[in-house]
Design brief:
The chain is mainly α and 449 residues long. It contains 20 helices and no strands.
């Protein structure tokens, strides 16, 4: 649009403008890339703490059962302990609705600060709660209260953080950035496993029962101040409060046009949720049914975490290149097919090879398809309902299936005596997930807003 006039330096007007425009574009692109990397670290730290706490609780579920839920039968104490673990999931839907709407109206950043603060309260209660022998019924009450607070926070954590990652990502890399939600889960499990192995290897059984199990919870609590500082310095990607719909309008939208989206999103989350918690249960499974030592049982979880990291990173790259649906459907189908044979092998050959190989296969298949799942859901909802839609979907799936996994598996093992019970639960979850994955539309090439 400008005349090609030579300047004093010999450069034409249009060439100079073109050069300056390119320079500005590069500067903006570099700034966005830097901001996005910082956003990844700040956003996933809360999700990492969530799964770190889950994993640590699963490690020491048997000890927590003895300390806070005394019973005449060891498996009965474990059952009460995992029931308390599942109680926290009852608060997830409420947290998903309340914090999800707060994130869509006030912004992702304040919602993520709130969830991290609530996590700190819950973890502090568990780390400091006196045992049943000291304060009686108040001890299990404190554990249940802590799980309810954490469940409320975790119900609202997934929506704002995943929405933030997707909204911060450069064009064509949304799955890679969103996959860091799953990567953070794997890293958290890996760190929790490492701490668990070191604690169990360096402390006697008596010391572990008395106070050693509290150390991992205290270490997780120490990370929260760092997370709060990182999240306070985040940029905002959410909708302004004056453009976000009211609670009544958002509820009506969820009941109407987006009810199908919530339903399908819930279905596709189920396989990864169930399999992750089955893998987290492997420590108790290896201890109580396979009779492996504590150190080896916890070491399995370290390997599971490493496999989740690798699989999620690969899944994110593949989902950006080939689309979300194929990267969801293929690994989920394979997971459904190998679940039963894997547990047959695990129970037929009691060796360290099978103990490590079976959870590794489950983790690789879960991590690869979970990366696409965590991307396609926020891409399905509009910006003003994105956090709410994802939070509600994730909370429902986690409450009904994730929170019940350890309890249901423990109950099935006790009632039926069939060590293959976890495989049947995974197969059912995959069948539901594949139904949702088939019906949900592809979103790779769609504009985010």
């Amino acid at each position: 649009p400008f005349p090609s006039i030579r300047c004093a330096g010999g450069e034409s007007n249009d060439n100079r403008i073109r050069r300056q425009t390119v320079a500005v574009r590069h500067e903006i692109a570099g700034s966005k890339q830097e901001t996005s990397r910082g956003a990844v670290i700040a956003a996933v730290i809360g999700n990492a703490l969530e799964f770190y706490d889950f994993t640590v609780y699963a490690f020491f579920a048997a000890i927590i059962g003895r300390q806070f839920f005394p019973s005449d039968h060891p498996l009965g104490a474990l059952l009460l302990s995992v029931a308390a673990f599942g109680v926290g999931f009852l608060a997830r839907p409420l947290g998903g609705i309340v914090i999800g709407r707060y994130a869509d109206r006030a912004g992702r950043k304040p919602a993520m600060l709130l969830t991290l603060a609530l996590m700190a309260i819950g973890m502090a209660i568990i780390a400091l709660a006196p045992p049943y022998a000291s304060i009686g019924l108040a001890a299990p009450t404190l554990i249940v209260l802590a799980r309810l607070i954490q469940g409320f926070a975790w119900g609202g954590e997934a929506g704002p953080t995943t929405s933030y990652l997707v909204e911060s990502a450069p064009e064509g890399q949304r799955a890679r950035y969103a996959s860091w939600q799953v990567v953070s889960q794997g890293l958290a499990v890996l760190v929790a496993g490492t701490i668990g192995v070191l604690a169990s290897a360096s402390l006697s059984a008596e010391s572990m029962d008395a106070w050693g199990w509290r150390i991992p919870f205290a270490l997780g609590l120490a990370v929260i101040p760092v997370g709060l500082i990182l999240r306070r310095n985040m940029h905002e990607t959410g909708a302004p409060a004056d453009t976000a719909p009211t609670f009544a309008v958002a509820t009506a939208s969820m009941q109407g046009r987006y009810l199908k989206c919530v339903t399908l999103a819930t279905l596709i989350i189920i396989p990864s949720t169930v399999t992750v918690y089955v893998n987290n249960y492997m420590t108790s499974y290896a201890l109580t049914l396979l009779h492996f030592p504590m150190t080896m049982s916890i070491a399995v979880t370290m390997m599971v975490g490493a496999c989740m990291v690798v699989a999620a990173l690969a899944g994110g790259i593949l989902a950006d290149r080939f689309g979300r649906k194929v990267v969801m459907i293929v690994p989920c189908t394979l997971l459904m097919l190998v679940a039963y044979p894997a547990f047959v092998v695990l129970n037929s050959w009691h060796s360290l090879t099978t103990l490590f190989a079976v959870p590794a296969v489950l983790a690789l298949l879960t991590g690869s398809h979970a990366a696409a799942v965590i991307t396609i859901i926020p891409e399905t909802f509009p910006k003003t309902l994105r956090s709410t839609g994802l939070s509600i979907s994730y909370a429902i799936a986690a409450t009904i299936f994730g929170g019940s996994t350890q309890f249901v598996v423990t109950w099935l093992l006790r009632v039926t005596g069939n060590p293959l019970s976890p495989a049947f639960y995974i197969i059912g979850a995959c069948a539901l997930g594949l139904l949702g994955m088939t019906l949900l539309r592809e979103t790779r090439d769609t504009t985010l807003d």
